Amino acid sequence: MSLGRTFLDVRPLRTSPVYRRLLIGRTVSTLGGFMTMVTVMYQVWDMTHSSVWSGAVGLAQALPMVGVGLFAGAWVDRADRRRVYLLATVGQAVCSLLLAVQGFTGHAPVPLILALVAAQASFGAVGGPAAGVFVPRLLPRDQVAAGLALNQATGQSMMLVGPAVAGLVLGWWGIGVCYLLDALTFGLAFYGAFGLPPLPPEGEKSRPGLHGVLDGLRFLTGNRVVRGALLTDLAATVLAMPVSLFPLVNEERFGGDPRTLGLFLSALAVGGVIATAFSGPVTRLARPGPVMLCASGLWGVSLAVFGLTTSAWAGIAALVLAGAADAVAVLSRTTIVQTRTPDALLGRVTAAEAIVGQAGPHLGNLRGGLAAGWSSGATALVTGGVLCLLAVTAVAATTAELRGGAGDPDEEPGRAPDSGSSSAGAVEGDGATAAAPGAP
Predict the structure, then answer these.
(1) CA 7 → CA 16, 139, 159, 274, 391, distances in Å?
(2) Which of 71, 86, 322, 363 could form a disulfide with 302 if both were Cys (CB 3.0 to 4.6 A apart)?
(3) How far apart are CA 268 and CA 279, in angstroms?
């Protein structure tokens, strides 16, 4: 294998100007989103010095994802995804502007700040499923995984850079400027998507209301590959999420040194960035099912090793490996969802995937805390890693379709058109840009 094929596959950047602009918009908006996340936490803590109110920030961000997500997905599967995304982007920008106004005036009560955060998260829960169709509709099938890897790489990079930039801006200019900069980043996301052609669902539109939601859930339970991918992700996050255990393990094993704790938190992200940077062979392999199963099992094993080690550097190495495995598993799961879901259902399934990704880590951190309360942090880590490995093995044993490849059937239900198709050509000639966690 040539060295060039080892690194992140950048073919979508060369072959698709529209995707390139979408990625730029996504990257800048993600940066703004992480800046706002840090700023809200800082402002609420500065106003209250209460861990309860600080915890409410996460709740204000997570609840709309669950409460709005599935119904938003059903709406997205009835409408022009481009228009829905643009409306959601405008809604999020308005929320950031209102946060900036209260940041400059300094008179808003905490519940109002949380209400604005929840409103912005609600718009994100609408725009996310709409943006979920962009990559499989804009890129040829053999580049979908590469496009998703580029999205992931830029998102992880902004996750590292965004909080640091927020800290500098907060120190120099204050919270109002941070919120205002986030609002401006939505302008690039809007500009990118504005040039897209209409992207209505291909096939039968979603039924309105609860009926459409139930149709999406029936697909999730009936499609063994997609169901297996989401179950694997739940096994990894619910059974083995380690973040809530880091302070306790740091206290038990390493004397509570804050520098060690910081390295634990950074190691997962570093592993993810490294794995994504060298994801070329994974995305070109076109076998996301087996890759996801192996990576999820490695995640569990790495965390069990971290629980057993008494060396800080060995523990950090195990966490870097776990972060790399997690990044590969997430990339493979997203590839499965976006290539195995019919376009007419993609909004609802993307919304369900986002809910799994949001709820799983929260439940996993809760499980870890409860298990540690009954035993110890190290025991909770080891048992969680072993349970994750067993659960992933069970999914693999019972889902032959996932073991067999899950990425290259002849009749790919949600496949993007090939490069020469009229749909791809129409988009290529038009121009645009896309989403981000900060944006939808």
Answers:
(1) 19, 19, 20, 10, 31
(2) 322
(3) 16
Torsion sign, CA atoms 323, 188, 10, 138: positive
Query: d(Cα 107, Cα 87) in Å, to the nearest integer?
Result: 29
Residue-wise DSSP of 103-143: HHH----HHHHHHHHHHHHHHHHHHHHHHTTHHHHHS-GGG
Phi then psi dihedrals of residue 361, to 5 deg: -60, -40
CA distance 356 to 370: 21
232 vs 425, residue with greater confidence? 232
Among the CATH numbers 1.20.1740.10, 2.40.170.20, 1.20.1250.20, 3.20.10.10, which is that of 3-428? 1.20.1250.20
DSSP 197: P
- Is the backbone of residue 412 left (phi > 0), alpha (psi -120 to 50) or beta? beta
| Residue 394: how many other CB atoms lie within 10 Å | 13
The ranges assigned to domains in the chain are 3-428
User: For residues 88 and 99, what is the distance between their CA atoms, to the nearest angstrom?
Assistant: 17
| DSSP state for residue 200 in the 8-state scheme | P
3-state secondary structure of 299: helix
Q: Could you give the angle at the alpha carbon of 438 between the alpha carbons of 436 and 440, nearest 5°?
A: 55
Instruction: State both tokens at 159.
Output: 């996750």
Concatenated DSSP letters of 392-439:
HHHHHHH-HHHHTTSS--TT-TTPPPPTTSHHHHHHHTT------SS-
What is the DSSP code string of 36-88? HHHHHHHHHHHHH--HHHHHHHHHHHHHHHHHHHHHHHHHHTTS-HHHHHHHH
Q: How far does the chain reach from its first CA to its final CA, in angstroms?
A: 37
Closest CA to 432 of 61, 56, 85: 85
Half-sphere exposure at residue 433, Cβ-oriented, CA atoms within 13 angstroms: 19
Please identify which residue in the block is written with the tokens 């369900």: 352
pLDDT in tens, 12-67: 998 889 999 999 998 999 999 989 988 998 898 889 888 678 778 877 887 888 88
| Angle, CA 243 vertex, CA 127 and CA 380 arms, to 5° | 130
What is the distance of C-alpha 47 from the center of its chain? 30
